[in-house]
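Thread: NAP complex, take 2
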Amino acid sequence: MKAYEMQQFGIDNLQLVDRETPQPKGHEVLIKFHAFSLNYRDLMFVDGRYNPRAKFPAVPFSDGAGEITAIGEKVTKWKVGERVCPIFMQDWRDGELSAAKSKTSLGGGGDWDGVLREYGAFDEQNVVKIPDHLSQEEASTLPCAAVTAWNALAVSGNLKAGDTVLTLGTGGVSIFAVQFAKLFGAEIIATSSSDEKLAKVRGLGAIETINYRTREDWDKAVLELTGKNGVDHVVEVGGAGTMAKSVNAVKAGGHVAVIGVLTTAGDFNPISILIKAVRMHGIFVGSRTMFEDMNRAIEANKLKPVIDKVFAFGEVREALRYMESGAHFGKIVVRM
Ligand SMILES: NC(=O)c1ccc[n+]([C@@H]2O[C@H](COP(=O)([O-])OP(=O)(O)OC[C@H]3O[C@@H](n4cnc5c(N)ncnc54)[C@H](OP(=O)(O)O)[C@@H]3O)[C@@H](O)[C@H]2O)c1
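Output below.
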């Protein structure tokens, strides 16, 4: 089978190689992948920022969708032909995250190869069914970005109709957060560096939008829009450079889902967290149970992921460079 492999970091060091096609044993199912999606983590992984101690050779990417083409002799849960996605952390099926579970993510340079290959064998417990109304390309966007946004709002945030949600930028996680917030009947305030993208995010249901380039004090804009109260939830994907403003924009007793590291420079004084009794909650994707709960909501509402652009399997480097440019709105997909 064909697989993308890295022997060292760098987009140009991603090599298409031949590997032996795995055979499913015991409780394993064999997935023939049809599509993959990119996460910012993949870009960080490939250029060496995510895990400087990665084991090589490494197959990158966590998110793939495909069909089961063979099953091990002990498999009872699945049949050949069913459409599935592997879960992000193979050992986080349910309950709380643990240090051991967090080491089982796909494509992070640890013991688990990523999905950027024609076939992969996975334990039958570590894959989830693709909602029927989604294509393989749409389904490939779910395992990391969508589950993260779901965990941030539906699980950690206990989101309720009428809550206000602030999303930062219009990347994969943020656009899923907008879609889930809309689905719950929440009011969305979205930011972006581009007025064109802000028009698109209004089309998805954001009631207010702020250009964080032209309005650098976007936290003050959020306070103006909320009668000086602040929002109930911030989907915080920016990290060091946005955290102080996110905490300023959240209401007293509000919730900040701490997710991303899109920016690295910034100073943040944690005193406002305690003065406002803000609930800060670190999010690391989510469990299989969260993925399955999310898929039920996606299915019931016929929700469609927002795909910006689809690249061919031979164009993975171009897809990563496109992500690097920040031109995308929602998800970038690679078709097998
Ligand atoms: N903890 C977890 O479990 C988890 C899971 C998934 C992702 N993440 C992290 O979450 C972040 C987002 O991931 P992603 O895959 O959604 O990334 P992505 O699709 O590449 O999102 C990039 C977008 O973020 C926006 N952005 C960049 N800098 C910004 C800033 N200073 N303020 C506000 N928005 C900014 C830009 O949107 P505009 O062009 O609209 O300005 C940019 O296009 C990354 O740091 C990623 O590592 C964490």
